[in-house]
Every structure is written in C-alpha cells, then in structure tokens.
Amino acid sequence: EVQLQASGGGSVQPGGSLRLSCVVSGVPVSKHRMSWIRLAPGKELEWISSIDRDSSTRYADSVKGRFTISRDNAKNTVTLEMNSLKPDDTAVYFCRWDYTGGFRRGQGTLVTVSS
User: Fold this and answer.
1) Could you give the CA distance from residue 112 to residue 102 in angstroms, rounded to a whole number?
2) The predicted structure's pLDDT at residue 42
3) Do the beta carbons of residue 18 and residue 12 sit within 8 Å?
C-alpha cells in the first residue's frame, strides 16, 4: 500500500521560511512524478509544484521563485522548501503521487503565515 506522510508545517511570520517533507512508502519517488498541492481556507485545491522522473521541476506562478521542490531517492522523500512566505500561502499542504490514470495524496501539514 502506498502511503504519503507530510510534515514540517507550522506558524511563521510573513517573509519567513519553512521546509516541508513527505515520506513516501510503497513506491519509489525516483520513478514517479511527485507533487505538492495545497488547500487554503475558502479556496479550491491548488497544484503548486511537481518533480518528474527526469528531475525536471515545475511551479505554479503563485510560488515560482520562492518555493523549491526536491527529492531524496535514498530516503524516498520529497521536500518543499518555502521562502518569502506570504499570508496567502496559509493552507494545508499535501504531497501527491501521480500515476497513470490517477493520483493519491496523503495526510497534509498545516502552514500558517501570519504576523
């Protein structure tokens, strides 16, 4: 069974940084597209970043230049480094495993950006 567990969320002031980690079990992150998505209060689920099998990365315009996605194949984890955080980044963040015909996400981690 595939499991994804995100962690690293917390409360931070605007301009601050956080590092989210997703521990994946059941599939090798090196062989799949892995993504981060988020759900903000009152908003729809938003895709924010992906890393593909060839290590290429993509970002939503809302986070480009501030967030960095990476993976550690040995630890089978996916990380999201978040800098210059804004109040609009407040959300529950999930990591997602994309496979042919579908996807699966794990439990999220809450990020709150507030002064």
Assistant:
1) 29
2) 94
3) yes
Q: How far apart are CA 89 and CA 48, in angstroms?
A: 11
CA-to-CA separations, 96 to 1, 16, 21, 63, in angstroms, rounded: 14, 24, 12, 17
Query: Considering only CA atoms, which of 106, 85, 77, 79 is closest in space to residue 11?
Result: 85
The two three-digit tokens of residue 99, written as one number: 């496979």
Instruction: State the CB neighbour count (10 A cutoff) for residue 89.
Output: 23
Enter the tokens of residue 24: 């994946």
Residue 72 pLDDT exceeds 90: yes
Q: pLDDT digits over 91-107, tens only?
A: 999 999 998 888 999 99
> In which residue are the tokens 């567990």 written?
5
| pLDDT (0 to 100) of residue 26 | 94
